[in-house]
Amino acid sequence: MEPSNETKFSKFLLLGFSEEPGMQPLIFGLFLSMYLITVFGNLLIILAISTDPNLHTPMYFFLANLSFVDICFTSTTVPKIVMAYDRFVAICHPLHYTIIMNPRLCGLLVVVSLITCVLNSLLQSLMMLRLSFCTHLHIPHFFCELNQMLQLACSDTFLNNVVMYLAAVLLAGGPFIGILYSYSKIVSSICRISSAQGKCKAFSTCASHLSVVSLFYCTMLGVYLSSAATHSSRSSATASVMYTVVTPMLNPFIYSLRNKDMKRALKAFFGKETLTGQSA
């Protein structure tokens, strides 16, 4: 009897948060609302910055880039440290800000961050292709997260785990340490401000920024670095919501809506649209 070629196809099924039919409309409505807020909020930031010449500065250039990657969500780890570095230079070296943060450096930082994210995604995808999976795999998650996929692989995943943890430490832990260092220097500079009102305003802004950054990095690092010790998929899925859905939704409120220049630009943008509509 001649041997026949047999090809096995792996079928992945995302289970989401709940298999109960009564909960699914509620979860769908909640995630749809957060998605729409994220997309429209970050899109408004991009439009306001692009249409207002007064916002064509390094800070708002990086903010527009962060809004773009929040919409696409390829990765926002490296762009966040770029934002932190911009604020560090602006507060700690205000007289040299325009010299240091020149257009060439700004463009280079954005390009490097995007290339780093793309190369990491490509590497992880290529590493995943070498694995073999059983058929009809159920993933108790709302997307194919890397550590969940590795737990379901039938072949040896040692090399994949090494690459995943190394990438998590370098691309998440490294920027997080850099952000904390930048904010420590920012705080020391704020403490030297003589005005009590100025100190309160600066601390309020930094605290809101740092809280979102900490939420993003702590939940993401927790999901990936704790996957070796625990295999609780439900808790992993819940934590993943924080850095994949919640923080991109909060960024427009934290980075922009508390900013007077952004509020003015948004009012001018909507006022221009209203006048255009009336004249048409």
Describe this structure in words.
- This protein has one domain: Rhopdopsin 7-helix transmembrane proteins (Up-down Bundle), CATH 1.20.1070.10.
- The chain has ten helices and two strands; from the N terminus they run βαααααβααααα.
- Strands 1-2 form a two-stranded parallel sheet.
- The protein is an all-alpha fold and 280 residues long.
- The radius of gyration is 22 Å and the shape is globular.
Set out the fold topology.
Blueprint: E1 12-14, H1 24-51, H2 58-72, H3 77-92, H4 97-100, H5 103-129, E2 137-139, H6 146-151, H7 158-191, H8 196-225, H9 233-257, H10 260-279
Parallel strand pairs: 1-2
| Binned strand content | under 5%
Structural class: mainly alpha
* Largest sheet, strands/sense/barrel: 2 strands, parallel
Shape by Cα distribution: globular
Q: What number is the mean pLDDT?
A: 79
Q: Can you tell me the residue ranges where pLDDT is under 50 for at least 5 consecutive residues?
A: 1-7
